[in-house]
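Handout, section 4.2: multi-component inputs.
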Amino acid sequence: MSEHLHDCRVLRRCWPEYADAHSTHVVNVNGVDIGGPLPVVIAGPCAVESMEQTLRIAIACKDAGAQLLRGGAFKPRTHPASFQGLGLEGLKILAEARARTGMGVVTEVMDPRLVEQVSEYADMLQIGSRSMQNFPLLKEVGRSGRPVLLKRGWSATLDEWVYAAEYIAQEGNLDIVLCERGIRTGVNESYARNVLDLNVIEPLRSVCPLPVIVDPSHATGTSSRVATMSNAALACGAHGLLIEVVDSEETRATLRCDGEQGVTPDQLARIVAPLGGVA
Amino acid sequence: MSEHLHDCRVLRRCWPEYADAHSTHVVNVNGVDIGGPLPVVIAGPCAVESMEQTLRIAIACKDAGAQLLRGGAFKPRTHPASFQGLGLEGLKILAEARARTGMGVVTEVMDPRLVEQVSEYADMLQIGSRSMQNFPLLKEVGRSGRPVLLKRGWSATLDEWVYAAEYIAQEGNLDIVLCERGIRTGVNESYARNVLDLNVIEPLRSVCPLPVIVDPSHATGTSSRVATMSNAALACGAHGLLIEVVDSEETRATLRCDGEQGVTPDQLARIVAPLGGVA
Amino acid sequence: MSEHLHDCRVLRRCWPEYADAHSTHVVNVNGVDIGGPLPVVIAGPCAVESMEQTLRIAIACKDAGAQLLRGGAFKPRTHPASFQGLGLEGLKILAEARARTGMGVVTEVMDPRLVEQVSEYADMLQIGSRSMQNFPLLKEVGRSGRPVLLKRGWSATLDEWVYAAEYIAQEGNLDIVLCERGIRTGVNESYARNVLDLNVIEPLRSVCPLPVIVDPSHATGTSSRVATMSNAALACGAHGLLIEVVDSEETRATLRCDGEQGVTPDQLARIVAPLGGVA
Amino acid sequence: MSEHLHDCRVLRRCWPEYADAHSTHVVNVNGVDIGGPLPVVIAGPCAVESMEQTLRIAIACKDAGAQLLRGGAFKPRTHPASFQGLGLEGLKILAEARARTGMGVVTEVMDPRLVEQVSEYADMLQIGSRSMQNFPLLKEVGRSGRPVLLKRGWSATLDEWVYAAEYIAQEGNLDIVLCERGIRTGVNESYARNVLDLNVIEPLRSVCPLPVIVDPSHATGTSSRVATMSNAALACGAHGLLIEVVDSEETRATLRCDGEQGVTPDQLARIVAPLGGVA
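Output:
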């Protein structure tokens, strides 16, 4: 299986030491090791909607034990009338949250023309599912000098995903973390937005030296399912979690993006508590 | 979601106590409770191939801590030239293994005309994935008086699966255990036979009072992946596991059915050990 | 591709003449040739609901140019509370429609115990999608002496489908017609019940000598789409069509099964008219 | 179904005349009407590999009756080691082919930074499947003043596809042609690269006033299947075809991109001949 992965000259050829040792290339983001012995939790709002909301949630995430802050300033939205994010203003809010909490910031970039700008504010650049095969963007983040979080497309094979990482690696950037976020199937419509493919983690780790984390928020689409799928992801060998957080049950309905899937800080704390300390 | 499940008059209407209590209908198979506080492990060969092979594996499964014995006497095979099982002779071998080990026997029935015969030898009747919507068969096992293990079809929705259980329940047989065994998708071809859908367990438990177990052997198709997916299944709230076992690495290639996915008794013991004792 | 089909000893090995000649094994049903130069239309109600309804529709189908009558006496229904068909009474109604119109009758059988009874009334036995891998049933219809209409399962590969036909053929019955009826995907939910897989017809015909027809009614789930997909099916080389018919737009809502997808006799006539006369 | 499409304020709200008249917004590309009474054929090499190859094929396509020339200068390739296209040199070759044959040129753009440059050479900008939800790119081509060919993502729903068109339309560019090119499923692996979803054409046309064409080359992945699926596409109401062409059977294996799916000029001529003249 995956015999063509021998073509990944950077990921496979240059790193025989990882394959031999079954070890992982540790990616350091603002002092936090992803791929090391302890799982890492990246948490925060789906979208940066205001300074107040972002700071409140960032502090709550830190208190709950999360190590890195996620939050979208540029939001890829299926429908053009949906909230598209605050853009540069959102980046500045994230920078303020970073200054207040000390947490490194992970945020999405969709446009190769904005990689440089986003890199000024972010500690890690997220490539979203829809962009997994946006090759000009992959090359640009490969040249950015920033660690990259590469989400799997919702219908991508393992090979396509690793090849996307190879595009980044060939630009000289090996600091890539892969993120499983659920696949589209014909059977899950009544119970989950997507099917979180936990089956892929172990095979992926066996062919690729990069860390793998899991986003249980988008796959389930339901906050009450996040804790369970987080535990399952870690049982499968995930190196960390990417979790969306809301202020409280009350504010859920007021959000402009995906409010129903964010966990509360209390729920986040219960997910993080058993993970063995700050990475 | 799943709003039509209110039509399941037996599973939903007659059992408000389960829904209210978020509890599970415990199914007792030869003294072993499925759906109780401890997870149950059902283990054994894919197919009954001989008396010696079956007894050896049955004893090894019992020693490893499994509580029930699985083994196919009637095998549904995609290709007609593949080994179809030993039939009645296989049932007699299973009965002998039961006598020697005391383990209750779980075996598949595909033909409504054979339900009575298989029920004489089996403690639990398995309905395979291909038979999930074989309605005459479902009705017949519903009238058999035997507990039923109902595997999900590899492209079945949650609703279709629960409706299949309702077919059995309407014949007066409420002793049904549901078994997730992997779904067919367009992305898993290079790394797994099917994608084990662990996302379905929690939603399924929220609409249906029946126990849910997971078969990691068929989904992964690879023995080395079974332990990890077993742990993940239990993290998702599965009430048990259905695991295929081979004698040893050496005998794997000699088997007439699915040798590559069976774990060895040692591997089985390592899966069972942390589960907290015999159910 | 499909290299394992060499294992189909009856379908591949015994019929080199078909493979060499790229010709098709013609299946004669009550004097109508399926697989010959002219496409065949099998039409009728989804379910036999009464004598009057069935006779009216049968006569209308004949007048519209259909050559064979379809109608379900035993209906496989996802939900046990749905109408399951009239059973034996339905078979007798179909026999009466046959006597009145001279049209051969195609009807589904789901239970191997009923193959003999259904064969007394039907000119062709239909195996439904859910039964495509019901191997005891396939063997029984293989021994029935009746031509068989084998629908593809909604998630079946080409190989699985041909192997299912091989199960029938190995019992000595080569009079098998394959029927494509749509596959389940993750993308069609808003516009079609299933995606009619017209891509499979030509590859299927290149590896298997059996005729292939298409059921546009179940795939589209919408009567207004049936004519278009019928034309497309014939453009792809289908040997015929299986079409559901309702009395009129007015009676659609009163039906107990799938009323929204049946075409009216007028619509049927417009589909049949260009096909070049009675086969 | 698709009730949210009422949110497409440009495509739905501003164009009630199309919805009322069940008519199509005709898109003119270099004098060729797409969406008018006659189907349009866009043909050419997968990739522009050299001046000689491109001119030879362009002339052969024109002689065969194709109205527009396709050819890739920037190729999105799953693997970074695959041939990525000749870039600007490829654009210049296409311009030369345009000058020699008079055919308008359709070519893909992947990078928003290159839209202006590609627009200087191309008569129509192609958005590939992987870019269907590349929103910065969609906005950029929406501002380019060039007609756009928007391919469906291989796992995109109808709604997602129309929303992607709406992104372009909201920038003031209504000259958009939609292109179905096959979906990824779990069943087609042995007989087709993807399943051409002809079922979507009629529903799509019922909710959206834009022309729809079909690419049978990528879906089938096999040149011998292209003619059949072309006919089927037109039977379903497609306004045109996008077809890959090779010089000859002999040169197929020498190509750097997708040689096995290109039809020869003779095969192309046989597809085009029955279509009723130049659009």
